[in-house]
């Protein structure tokens, strides 16, 4: 659970830069015996793909994923599953002008200080392109969770700038590029985004998510708590600035008599806990929220320095994506799936439980 | 970084139950050559101790910490440092009446589902008593960070229920039991707490924290990001429901032209990032916020079940602590220290940097 | 699996120095629900204790182990199990004369180069006293393996200096201080040891071991192979210089037609593999051998230097143990038990197998 | 350090099956700033390639390695370095006849019991083809160790069946396909191998290795000892049955007065320890030996069963490699390099040493 590997019994390692030849991942520890096709993985990749709507970046990637190991005759073997995608729309020449720039709000400064060298092409390793592989690996975890526990995971846009949204009909979040269940508000969102793009500015987003049918008993006190590892997972996604479980920051002003979820007639009467007590799942829905910052790639000039220390102004040319948070929706789902599946495996290892 | 161990090159393992004979921890990987005394550790333990004010639980623990390994002639040796505290005020008889109760909002339900057995005395392993050892180990990390990098870490009460507080004079947070720099508002806080205690209810808290003088370059993209591991650390503390880095959830409604921290005259002009870009520190202050839920141990009866499934009402007798979040302040500091020190070690391992 | 922690789903952390106040360990991830008493642990500790025969060191330790966490009302809870033993016969004054000596063949030189500081009292952390905790933790693993899989683990003295021994009656290895099943050869061994002690010199030993009833399927290709982790475990024991699985170095001169274990009438016709093929158990007995070097603590003077670089002669005074390898027998068994139990847990995590 | 990942601060993950489309590895945590070319990696791959001499298997692989991430403009960036090789000579049809066979001495039985499914084409994941990636990653580690510490690692054939070899001129081990420094004995070895191949049988091998100029202080007591992790590394290589450090099993019959390496005139007078005391390097040469079993793929029929339990005879057709151990030589070197480099990084993390 460090550098480029995530998880414990189910371990996910990603690699590749935005403009390298190939990005990929290794999913290690996955159970043998599950059928999987590249089409099932692509179905998830399309959900996060760029170029799907007029609000996202113009980069066109086919995301033509290949399974190069760990699957034999269409079935997982228990050996490391490797997924590869060739970058086809990575034109390095586009980035020559930023080779020396420190773009405000980007990895440029911190990576340069850390490594003394940086792949400036499209953000290199810091690019959200890396999250493609999370979604790809998440597709396998989601299928397994559905097959074995009927677990469903869904995330949706809960706030876009100042616009707050209800969950609406969560069966329909894939019906618009906004991942909202309030489809009737899509015109409002469209108009907001168009206005934003015209201004050359960007805005943040809040994504809410839940996992349904997660069995009670998942989570490893006290440093592998389910909520703690969900927080790690979410905060590892590009542009994240906050994570809440259940009531989140609202719990600060709640009274205990409200917050504690009483059990009435054998049922939890509320779910302020977000389905997790003391780091362990209760069987209620796992609920969480994630805050994404506005992208720093703007047409509005920003003051900065170059790597030689000269004052510069940075301007992002070409069409840009005024709210990167929206497309994080399937990434949030994928990370939830990977965390929950890993915890099922860890729980089984210790308890030999027949319940799970 | 799982079950009861936290960290990578600096590894912290805690053990012990609220009402067991002994709690303790092992701090492994700590550098050799640092002087440390039990008094230096106790100075931190006193800050989180119960029974310090009329607002906290009455449990009286001397927290008489012993160093039983890893320190020779007052100096760390590079071998595992073990700290032990005997529980002296653990009267198990007090808890006999709750042996079968599932207290709402506590670990009772989820632990019971997970393990099929639970140490019901004072919450067993789920008790906040475990955090004593985080503060103890944190004392060593804080001393090392101060000695080698002049890093200072301070946390303070930023919100108590609906009462929002400014940072005030952070040099004075230890001057009241509220860990506030706004000492002039202590009477207001006292009155609020007295009222709350009379009502038998509880409330949540928000703790803000910052680390000053953290060098640029700490954090391990993309799954060991500094912010991601801080989120893991904070969310592993009892009663946490949310974590923010820098602007946190405010970033959702911020524009990118505001959020991105421009560099003007060679200086960052703002710090919405909280000192971390793309998971790596920038040299600015590391800033974060943590939400703590209200305790569920109330004099107000709560509906629940017992382990046989019978409907019951749960009432916590005796004096209680109406806001457990306040005392989390030194725990937040300790976890920040452990995370930052671990990251310095990890960074050195990879980069052989002369800068750090 | 680094510094002072061993294992993955079952994690063992030991701490404490030879002459510190306390040694101990934390066994994390152990399943809930197993009964365990200190007497069961002590029964194993007595087997490795010093002072049991005239051939071992005179240090008298009661090894009065306490269980201070993770066991409630005599049953494991799933939380970290901590075992502590106070050192009662640790007279530091005995060691003052070696504070500056670099004893040949000991940790003195390498620890001093590594840490720049060393606890010279009885070898500090490098002392075989640490192995007490391996045996203590191993007692829990052995009980669990016996209860759940009827697995038996036994080790025995296979070679003492030039004297080679057969396995003999392995039910009787505890009937002499030599851990031999060839009880009729005990007088020969006694005479050899008496002669050796008179000469002031020491000798090495080879310990053989096997685990019976280990299910097929344990081991995690390709870097968590069962044989690879057994090698790690054995080589982590003090004074080890070699490890063999199955035929070991004899396989070098074997032909493939002999070495490969044919299956005749549905049974393996031989076991040159030592019960492990491609890193995964086959269901045959797991067999291994471990080489222990002769102790370097001798009455015969040895040339060395002190920490100031002066040439010195080092002599170990008092009674010494001319073959430290013999007492390693229960340690080998304990480490096998910890490795095998960890692998059962890891296998269950991935395969959800009903077979195991 | 489990399943398909090896190492701690320097982490190596391999993936891919013998007859999958691609094999590869991810080397994570590697320092930024080192120049590397595919030609430097290929130079090592050629040393282990099949089809180089008449004594090895006929499989012809070009081992045309690509660097697809972690290197920018020819220099390592600090991000995960991914190496890929496409399998070009993987004709699955050749293996159809063994789809149901349990070949004696191979992974067939244990993998099938473990996973309930197996990629039978060329051994799938259990094939020695996986070791290609160890050699590839090892090429980077070797270059770094040479550049920063002038460390040289060399392995050689020390025993072929009953034929024992001296180290000879270790500068010339690459001058014959036998990796021997005793070039004058190559005709003897050739004759032995030809005779063996004619007989349809195989034989084992012992490979010796040493690392020169390794600084003192490497190794992490007590579960990350340098010798313990070298044993893990060696025993993870296909066909290994034994590992020795320094004197190895000879230490069993040595006296302590011989074995302990005295320091005379400020120099170690011998090196029975193999450069490691108490798990930590001393600055002497690190020396070790590895035993490889004879291959089980023989023209001589072997009795076994198929996966339906029917008794069968297994015969390997076509040209075979009568001693697979010989080609393990560069693999042993690569694993030594990866272990030593990881330990340098781990040591730096803890000690901030200026010495290293």
Verbal overview:
4 copies of one chain form a homotetramer. A 5-stranded antiparallel sheet of chain A has the order 1-2-3-7-4, covered by helices on one side. The relative contact order of chain A is 0.17. By secondary structure, chain A is α+β, with helices and mostly antiparallel strands. The two termini of chain A are 25 Å apart. In chain A, helix 1 (38-48) packs across helix 3 (131-149), helix 3 crosses helix 7 (329-351) and helix 5 runs antiparallel to helix 7 (329-351). Chain A is globular, with a radius of gyration of 21 Å. The mean pLDDT of chain A is 93. Chain A has 7 helices and 18 strands. Chain A has a single domain (5-351), classed as Chorismate synthase AroC (Chorismate synthase, AroC fold). The interface between A and B is large, with 111 and 111 residues.
Q: What is the structure about, briefly put?
A:
The structure is a homotetramer of 356-residue chains. By secondary structure, chain A is α+β, with helices and mostly antiparallel strands.
Please describe the topology of this protein:
The structure is a homotetramer of 356-residue chains.
Chain A: E1 5-6, E2 11-15, E3 22-28, H1 38-48, E4 66-69, E5 71-72, E6 75-76, E7 81-86, H2 107-115, H3 131-149, E8 152-160, E9 163-164, H4 186-199, E10 205-212, H5 226-235, E11 240-245, H6 256-259, E12 263-264, E13 267-268, E14 276-277, E15 280-281, E16 286-292, E17 302-305, E18 311-314, H7 329-351
Antiparallel strand pairs in A: 1-2, 2-3, 3-7, 4-7, 5-6, 8-9, 8-10, 10-16, 11-16, 12-13, 14-15, 17-18
């Amino acid at each position: 659970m460090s550098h480029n590997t995530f998880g414990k019994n189910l371990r996910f390692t990603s690699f590749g830069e935005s403009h390298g030849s190939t990005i990929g991942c290794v999913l290690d520890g996955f159970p043998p015996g599950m059928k999987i096709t590249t089409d099932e993985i692509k179905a998830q990749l399309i959900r996060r793909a760029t170029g799907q709507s007029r609000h996202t970046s113009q980069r066109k990637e086919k995301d033509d994923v290949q399974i190069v190991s760990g699957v034999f005759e269409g079935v997982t073997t228990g050996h490391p599953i490797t997924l590869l995608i060739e970058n086809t729309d990575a034109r390095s020449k586009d980035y020559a002008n930023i080779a020396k720039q420190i773009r405000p709000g980007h990895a440029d400064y911190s990576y340069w200080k850390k490594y003394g060298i940086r792949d400036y092409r499209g953000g290199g390793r810091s690019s959200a392109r890396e999250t493609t592989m999370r979604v790809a690996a998440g597709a396998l975890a989601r299928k397994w969770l559905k097959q074995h526990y009927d677990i469903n995971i869904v995330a949706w846009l809960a706030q876009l700038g100042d616009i707050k949204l209800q969950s609406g009909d969560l069966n329909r979040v894939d019906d618009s590029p906004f991942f909202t269940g309030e489809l009737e508000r899509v015109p409002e969102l469209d108009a907001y985004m168009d206005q934003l793009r015209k201004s050359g500015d960007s805005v943040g987003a809040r994504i809410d998510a839940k996992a349904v049918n997660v069995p009670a008993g998942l989570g490893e006190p006290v440093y592998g708590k389910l909520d703690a590892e969900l927080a790690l997972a979410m905060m590892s996604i590009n542009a994240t600035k906050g994570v809440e479980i259940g009531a989140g920051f609202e719990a600060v002003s709640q009274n205990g008599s409200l917050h504690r979820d009483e059990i009435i007639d054998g049922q939890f009467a509320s779910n302020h806990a977000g389905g997790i007590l003391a780091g362990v799942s209760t069987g209620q829905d796992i609920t969480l929220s994630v805050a994404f910052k506005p992208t720093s790639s703007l047409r509005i000039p920003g003051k900065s320095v170059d790597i030689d220390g000269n004052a510069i102004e940075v301007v992002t040319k070409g069409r840009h994506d005024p709210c990167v948070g929206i497309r994080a929706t399937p990434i949030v789902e994928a990370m939830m799936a990977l965390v929950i599946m890993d915890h099922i495996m860890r729980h089984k290892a210790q308890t030999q439980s027949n319940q799970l």
